[in-house]
Amino acid sequence: xxxxxxxxxxxxxxxxxxxxxxxxxxxxxxxxxxxxxxxxxxxxxxxxxxxxxxxxxxxxxxxxxxxxxxxxxxxxxxxxxxxxxxxxxxxxxxxxxxxxxxxxxxxxxxxxxxxxxxxxxxxxxxxxxxxxxxxxxxxxxxxxxxxxxxxxxxxxxxxxxxxxxxxxxxxxxxxxxxxxxxxxxxxxxxxxxxxxxxxxxxxxxxxxxxxxxxxxxxxxxxxxxxxxxxxxxxxxxxxxxxxxxxxxxxxxxxxxxxxxxxxxxxxxxxxxxxxxxxxxxxxxxxxxxxxxxxxxxxxxxxxxxxxxxxxxxxxxxxxxxxxx
Length: 324
Prior knowledge:
By secondary structure, this protein is of the alpha/beta class. The protein has helices spanning about 15-20, 65-80, 90-95, 110-115, 175-185, 210-225, 235-240, 260-275, 275-285, 290-305, and strands spanning about 45, 50, 100-105, 120-125, 140-145, 160-165, 185-205, 245-255, 310-320.
């Protein structure tokens, strides 16, 4: 059984990790300044949800098992919508064997699935929290506790491919340049960097309820120093960092209509906005009543069906020059 089973149902990281087959250990990349994943992190709790409570972490979503479940299902949705786990022209290299970094890997759904699909390549995931499996995992898959606003714990020119996604609500606007610069540092000349992000402010065919919710998140993000417009800027940031052969792709995903894909995005939307209830109440106090808010969300789904609403998702990949 593999992580492809997430297409049928959602489950916790503990259960999912146990399904990953064990392999014989292989040689690991020597890392510098890596942190043992058993070290405790500081958390805060709101209701029954767990969040980071660190001054050096901008991420505003939870980091608990319920959030892991959401991210697992979200992974399958994105893979279907984009037609695969990556756009970079690296299929042959992955099959032959390269070093791969998944920056900000979260519960590592992408990392684990890719490590099974390409057993000759070695995969390294980094994240601020130990949300990834630490014991039962493929032997070509290693994880490191690391805050990506700090220099990555790897030597220069280590990886043939670097992947990072969905940090629009996790990185301060002022951090993006240095993060991308550091990802290029650890990328080998000729290697590929790929980013994937979602746009909150810019929707397709949105009605007033969906617009209210998405614009509230974007407003809150800006107040926290985040940049909700980063999906539209990442191509330019990668170019300024030195990437060449850039390809930028937009994929609109239907929300609450259009079949299974739209249902999955609605599930994701529902989970996110239930989590962000307190944020919406900041701007619309009448939403404080839970029954009222739940009804509003349900009406939002119907509105999205009637309007044919889509949320825009973006992938951008580029190459580190061979002469770098």
